[in-house]
Amino acid sequence: MPNWRKWNSRGKGIAFLHGNVYYDTEMTIRVLDRKTVSQIAAGEVVERPASVVKELVENALDAGADQITVEAGGGGVSQIKVTDNGAGIPADEVGLAFQRYATSKIDTLADLISIGSLGFRGEALPSIAAVAQVDMVTCAAGETVGAHVTITDEAISRREGQGRARGTTITVRDLFHNVPARRKFLKSVATENSHIASVISQCALAYPEVRFSLVIDGKVSLRTPGRGRLTDSILEVFGTEIAGNMLEVGIAGRQWDGGDDTIGVTGMVTAPTVSRSGRGYLSFFVNRRWVNSRLLARAVEEAYHGLLMVGRHPVAVLNIRLPAPEVDVNIHPAKREVKFRNEHAVFTAVQKAVRQALVEQMVVPAIEEVATRYSAPAARGSASVAPAPVENHPAHHPSQAPSLFTASLPVLRVLGQVLNSYIIAEGPDGLYLIDQHAAHERVRFDMVRRQRAGQAIPVQGLLEPVPLDVSPRQAEVLSSWCGKLAGFGFTLEPFGDRTYLVRAVPSLLHGADWAGVLRELLDSLSSGRSDDWEEKIIESIACHGAVRSGQSMTDDEMRELVRQLEQAESPYTCPHGRPTMIHLSSGQIAREFGRT
Ligand code: ADP
Ligand code: MG
User: Fold this and answer.
1) What string of pLDDT tens digits covers the 596 residues of the chain?
2) Is 312 within a domain?
């Protein structure tokens, strides 16, 4: 059914919208011209500069290169240059490479069943040429001179011989110059750079035997040694803290034998002692092809079940090896998703392989799961109300938030601490069990917000500047966030390619894990959405310096915390929307004891 239909603007035909396609019955059907067709098709493959990088690097890998250099300028829009030492393209095939659906990798659809290469659709080079200026120098083995071709408007505009060692260099300039709509949708240079860095990081993780160099605006952003050790790549991509805490999954060289011996799972995952607040650290490769997969992410999370706190996520780099017919790689134009024939077998294999690695190599005892049920005070109405969702953040929308969360707290008398995590207090109507961490987070959150509003964030200078190593992706993010972080008291200055010197931190984080705060921020800020960035920074500062669960508190400390909480604008929830306390009303207590 069309969504709407009406006379068209000329009043001569009916126009209607079906799904998101606009039809006009006055328009005659005609075949689109070749240029329009190729630009439409290119849109599927080349979404942003990082897509160009991905396609070119995949071609280099398919050509057997073991040294690949990627140079990007202007966020990849002005220029992307990929140089490899792979097989090169024979001089007489150079023109063919830029034709749509021209590929050396398959002949018929049947070949897809046993596809071993990353490319096969023959769409990348023509798609790129449809939306940019392309220049290629290539030389195949056994040829004395290489070919240098320039492609303008999808056709070879210049061709000459040029000497070079075996391999290929492709330079892509002025991306989307003829697709203004696409160009408008691109994000900042820093964001596009961070996508590029992330593509190369994934390639480096999938191919530790290849030497990758990523140079962004003349600066080396990532470089791997190409010695074939996954740990080397992990070190370069994620830094020392993560690299030092990885556990090996599966046994390299031998297939993991978990009942279904056709599935191999190899790679590394973090010990549960090291975790991250986002899912961005899960890298999956299927037969070494980087893929997005909810299924695999769930399998890994399942393996960590009970070992990580709620909201924490592991770092994982896993390659799933399975016979080519078991997986369909042709369901997505950019080849970022795959379909498994037997999803259940893959899920189980991954989950078991990771679990086995954790159980066998783990050094710390498992954290018990904590039930997070919450019952609202009976006196306030409904029997069990879930805490307000984060979007309803009372600090943001005081008028819309449920009254429970904006109501002020009665004066409470602290009775003691239980489990080193909760404060027991007595109020005018019964008993209060206060989560010390959540409560402190709320108090600190309000404090930072007040300081921020008054432009007065107290700063603590460090006695000596401390170096902070960041991943290539984090470095890109940091280059654009440095100023905003300074507004919160972080004084950072670049110190070499992937290191920053931290000179000062917000006083509230003095003595706390401020490096953890910075890394967490760089990861969450990189996700592109930036409208809530202030909130994220404040939350992170609030959470990290807050008293932990399991930390014993003196009576004075508890009284001080409760007094501050009484003054909070929304004392009943922490900044993430979870409850700070459970209230057992005197009525409830009496009922439980069968007194009413
Ligand atoms: P596909 O990778 O799907 O085959 P592309 O459009 O990406 O399609 O590339 C077309 C063809 O050009 C490839 O099949 C390959 O033969 C050749 N080619 C592209 N890039 C390279 C390279 N860096 N080295 C060698 N050959 C290449
Ligand atoms: Mg390709």
Assistant:
1) 566 777 777 777 777 777 666 777 766 777 777 777 777 777 777 889 999 999 999 999 999 999 999 999 999 999 999 999 999 999 989 988 888 777 777 777 666 666 677 877 778 898 999 999 999 999 999 898 999 999 988 888 899 999 899 999 999 999 999 888 888 888 889 999 999 999 999 999 999 999 999 999 999 999 999 989 999 999 889 987 788 889 999 854 344 444 445 789 999 999 888 888 878 899 999 999 999 999 999 999 989 887 787 788 999 999 999 888 888 887 776 678 889 999 999 999 999 999 888 877 754 332 232 222 233 333 333 333 333 333 333 333 433 333 333 356 777 888 999 999 999 998 878 899 999 999 999 999 999 988 888 888 888 888 889 999 988 888 888 888 888 899 899 999 988 888 999 999 999 998 888 998 998 888 887 655 566 788 888 988 998 889 999 999 998 899 899 989 988 877 888 887 788 888 888 888 888 888 87
2) yes
> Measured in whole angstroms, how far is the alpha carbon of residue 339 from the centre of its chain?
21
Report CA(193)–ligand 1 centroid distance (Å): 24
Q: In terms of DSSP H, where are the helices of 454-527?
A: 472-486, 514-525
Query: Which one of the ligands is nearest to 129 CA?
Result: 1
Strands 21-24 and 14-18, how do they pair?
antiparallel
For atom 21 of ligand 1, the residue with the nearest CA is: 59
Pair (439, 509) in one structural domain = yes
Q: How far apart are CA 482 and CA 500, in angstroms?
A: 10
| Residues near ligand 1 (Cβ within 6 A) | 55, 59-60, 63, 84, 86-89, 97, 102-105, 119-125, 168
Residue 367 belongs to domain spanning: 244-373
Same domain, 460 and 570: yes
Pair of tokens at residue 251? 């046994």
Amino acid at 236: E
129 and 215 belong to one structural domain = yes
For the domain that residue 585 is a member of, what is the CATH number?
Answer: 3.30.1540.20
Clarify whether residues 14 and 57 are in a common domain: no
Whether residues 4 and 65 share a domain: the answer is no
Residue 551 included in any domain: yes
d(CA 21, CA 24): 10
Here the CATH number for the domain that contains residue 258 is 3.30.230.10
Centre of ligand 1 to C-alpha 97, Å, is 6
Residues 415 and 525 both lie in one domain: yes
The preferred substitution site among 67, 85, 125, 164 for testing ligand 1, maximizing ligand atoms within 8 Å of CB, is: 125
How far is residue 591 from each of residues 378, 548, 585, measured CA to CA in Å? 11, 33, 10
Q: Give the domain CATH number at 182.
A: 3.30.565.10
Query: 32 alpha carbon to ligand 1 midpoint, in Å?
Result: 27
Question: Is the pTM higher than 0.90?
Answer: no
Q: Given 353, 373, 393, which residue is the final one in a domain? A: 373
Domains contained in the chain, number = 4
For residues 355 and 91, give the distance between their C-alpha atoms in angstroms, rounded to a whole number.
Answer: 51
Any domain includes 177: yes
Q: Could you please report the per-residue DSSP string of 507-542? A: GGGTTS-HHHHHHHHHHHHTTS--TTHHHHHHHHHH
The verdict on 134 and 84 lying in the same domain is yes
- Using the atom order of ligand 1, give the atom closest to the CA of residue 140: 25
Residues 59 and 197 in one domain: yes
171 located within any domain: yes
